[in-house]
């Protein structure tokens, strides 16, 4: 298996609900290693850079308002097949449809306020890590 890195965001709803430890422990229990971790509040410009492919979509403004609504946790995780492993642990985007045992399946009832973001490919992972952690080797 190839060791990969992926970006994960614990979104403002996860921070607000006090789920940082519960969510992070799932990644650690899977065997993923935390390479970088930072709590921050993002502004609209950063949100637009992160979600660049969605900025022109009608549903984006409420997403921008949500992701900038409070502190979030940005982290880089590393491990074998990290991109796929994290996306599986997170579950389906819609918390109602997500499988029990996944982060969203256990803790979310929403499609937008769904606790976590994870890179969806190695390409997006490289772009997102460079955006959120530009000095990370």
**How big is the Rg?**
14 Å
How many runs of DSSP E, i.e. beta strands? 4
**Beta strand %:** 15-25%
The string of secondary-structure elements, in order, is: EHHEHHEHHEH
Total helical elements: 7
- Which structural category fits the helices and strands? alpha+beta
Overall outline: globular
Kindly report the spatial arrangement of strands forming the biggest sheet. Answer: 2-3-1-4
User: Residue share in helices?
Assistant: 40-55%
| Major sheet details | 4 strands, antiparallel
Keywords:
alpha+beta; 4 strands; globular; 20% strand
General description of the model:
- The model has no long low-confidence stretch (mean pLDDT 97).
- The protein has 7 helices and 4 strands; from the N terminus they run βααβααβααβα.
- With 137 residues, it is an alpha+beta fold.
- Helix content is 41%, strand content 20%.
- The chain has a 4-stranded antiparallel sheet with strand order 2-3-1-4.
Q: How do the helices and strands line up, and which of them pair or pack?
A:
Layout lengths: L2 E8 L1 H5 L3 H11 L2 E8 L3 H7 L9 H8 L4 E9 L1 H9 L12 H5 L8 E3 L3 H11 L5
What's a quick, concise take on this entry?
With 137 residues, the chain is α+β, with helices and mostly antiparallel strands. The chain is built from seven helices and four strands.
């Amino acid at each position: 298996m190839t060791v990969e890195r992926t970006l994960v965001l614990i979104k403002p709803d996860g921070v607000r609900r006090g789920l940082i430890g519960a969510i992070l422990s799932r990644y650690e229990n899977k065997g993923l290693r935390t390479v970088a971790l930072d709590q921050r509040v993002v502004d609209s410009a950063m949100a637009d850079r992160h979600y660049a492919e969605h900025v022109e979509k009608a549903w984006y403004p409420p997403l921008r308002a949500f992701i900038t609504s409070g502190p979030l946790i940005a982290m880089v995780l590393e491990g074998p097949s990290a991109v796929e492993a994290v996306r599986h642990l997170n579950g389906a985007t819609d918390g109602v449809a997500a499988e029990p045992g996944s982060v969203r399946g256990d803790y979310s009832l929403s499609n937008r306020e769904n606790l976590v973001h994870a890179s969806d490919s190695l390409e997006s992972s490289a772009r997102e890590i460079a955006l959120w952690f530009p000095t990370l080797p």
